[in-house]
Each structure stands twice: as C-alpha cells, then as structure tokens.
Amino acid sequence: MNILVVTSFDYPHVGGLSTHVEMLTGELKRLGHKVDVVSFSDVNRLYAKYVVRGVSFILNKLKRGLGIVYTNKQRIKLLKSLVNIRLNKTKYDLINAEDPAAMIALKGIDLPKVLTVHGYATFEYLSIGSVLKDTKQEAFLYDMERQAYNMADALIAVDTRIKNYLKDFAKKDATVIRNFVDTDIYDIKKYDVSQLKKKLNVPENKKILLCPRRLTEKNGVVYPAMAVNLLKEKYPNIMLYYAGDGEEREKIENYIAKYNLHDYIKLLGSIPHDRIVEYFCVADVVLIPSVHSKGIEEATSIAAIEAMAMGKPTIASAIGGLKELIENGKSGILVQEKNEIQLADAILKVLTDDALREALSTGARQRVIEEFSLSSGVQKYLDVYQKVIVNNQKR
C-alpha cells in the first residue's frame, strides 16, 4: 500500500503528534508499505519564518486570534501545493491527515482520506488564549474543524471522549484507536540503568520523579512542584525532573525560588524524543498531572504509555483518556486533578511501599503490551485504510 501522511505542523518536532507519526510511519514501512510524509517543515524555512509565523505574530498583536486564522489559511494553501507536487510524482492509495487543517488542504483530491483526531482543535486554541470565545476567529476555527471531519472518508479518534465529541459536534462516527508505543524500545531490561545515571548525572541517593510534559497550563505542570514542596521535609531525598519546555516555565521557576526548592527540582528543557527513554530508565515514579483547561481534557497520553511500557509506576490525573489508560491501583495510580495533596500522598505511598511499587510496575507494562502496543495499533490503522479503499472503489 502507498500511503501519504499529511500534517500542518512541523515534523519531526517535540510532542505527541510527531511521536505518533514517527511510530505509525516507521511500523508501516517495516511491514512493507511505502509511506511519505508532507508537513509544514517542507515549506521554505524563510517563508515559514517571516511570511507565516512573522505575519501571524503581528496580526495577533493587533487582535488576538487574527494570526491563528491567518496561519491556518497559509498552512492549508502551502500544504495543498506540496501535496499536489507529491501526487504528480507518486501514485498513492490513501492519504492520512493528522489534523483538521491538513484535511482541508486535501480538498478536491480524489483519493481515500482518513483523518486522525488527536484532540479538540479549537478548544486547544481557546485553552492557551490564542483565540477568544464568541469571536469571528473562534467561529472560523469551528467551521474549519467541522468541514474537515465531514470531508474524511473515515475518522480515527485516539480515545472515546474524542469519539463522543466528533459524534456530538460533527454528527460523525469514528473508530477509536488509542495511542501506542514500541514495547521493544520501551523495555527497561534493554538498558543499563546505573550507566545511564552516570551519563545523566543523576544522584544515586535520590529518588527521581519525572514529569515528561510540555510546560503548558493544560498539562498541570505546577502541581508536581507543589507536591514536592509538601514532601521535602518528610522525604528529603526526592528530586523532580521536568522534561519539557513551555509558557509555564517561568511560573515553575518562580515557585522554586519562592519555596527554595533548587535542591529538589531540575528543569531539563525539551528533550528529543529519541532520548526521553533514558530519563524513563532513571525515574522511580512518572507524573502526568494533566488538568481540565477551557474544555480540554488529556487524550491517551503517549508519555504515560511510554512510562508504563518501561514498567514505571505512573501517577496521573483522573481525567480524559488517562482514565481509560490506567486501571487505578493495578497499572498506575489516578488522583484528583489540581490536587497537590493527593499527588504528594500517592508519590509517598509508591516510594515507601515496595510491594505496591512492584505490582504497579508489572501491571503497567502488561497493560501496555496487551492494549497499547505498536504492532496491534498499526494493524488497526491498516484495517481502517483497507475498508476505506474498498468503499471508495465501490463508488
């Protein structure tokens, strides 16, 4: 099968969508399929920097949301041109778009189209304040979303909440295929943990808490720092690592300074995806403290699945796809969102209860092998692809 994957975002980049595309395309190629990717990274870098991002920045200064509308229109136009160049060179059986703007760019192309829905596109712009409610810009984005969903021959949702959203918002059915990971790569037995601790300068006498999240509001990243502040007297040999960057960094830095947590918290910045496995290796507990943010709920977090595949006790907020991923007390621990007290209690419980820690470790990896493995996930994608191709041939 010849497959074209299209995204209006940069690829590769740090983040879940890029990780998903990397794993999906890699496994499809391993199975003998031909796969190409068209992304915003294929646009001339100077044009992307000044004509798209630069103008968007200026427009957003004039009125919040204008730049988001502009950049989406630009990305659609540019992707359309790039896709047409590909189609003139290669015959594809199917196109898989990875976001609504990418699907709009495929308008008028007579090929089977699948759209993978990773989240709530317009809600996410509202969540970070890029667009304001009850504006023309918000209406534009919702219209773009709806049009994209209705253009697709098949929709894939990464969790059941997104499936329900698509049904309510666009009156469209979707197949749920949860995010997946390569359990051969994410296998603690294949790594020398003591050597990695030396390489990463991890103190041997510290218990490492890892928060592998972009530092954004919806990821609830301030709460691990607050939990550490509660635990520092009771359990002084803990160290929290943040692997990620974003607009909440300054807030965390201010919190560290206010409560003198420099000896307990380390901000690593963005870590390339091919290196994050090293930090999972040295972690004792992984934290996924996501929160509701202006209608946004965490989907099936790839970082959480990776941590569980490594057999790491994972503590997450009981929201969205995280509730589908983690069986509380068996394959991880779920806590109330925005509750640093519950988070601190769960951390302490895991660190001090050897039997629980071992049970969570075993249960987490088993859960991923059974439900979230790369091979089974990609086979589900191929089933959808084949069905769409057959249905299109009948028309």
TrEMBL record:
Superkingdom of the source?
Bacteria
Q: Which residues form the Glycosyl transferase family domain?
A: 195-367
**Entry keywords, A to Z:** Transferase
InterPro entries, per database record:
Glyco_trans_1 (IPR001296), Glyco_trans_4-like_N (IPR028098)
Question: Which GO MF term does the entry hold, naming one?
Answer: glycosyltransferase activity
List the Gene3D superfamilies.
Glycogen Phosphorylase B
Ranges of residues in domain Glycosyltransferase subfamily 4-like N-terminal? 14-184
Pfam families reported for this sequence = Glyco_transf_4 (PF13439), Glycos_transf_1 (PF00534)
Which named protein is this?
A: Glycosyltransferase involved in cell wall bisynthesis
Q: Which organism is it from?
A: Caldanaerobius fijiensis DSM 17918
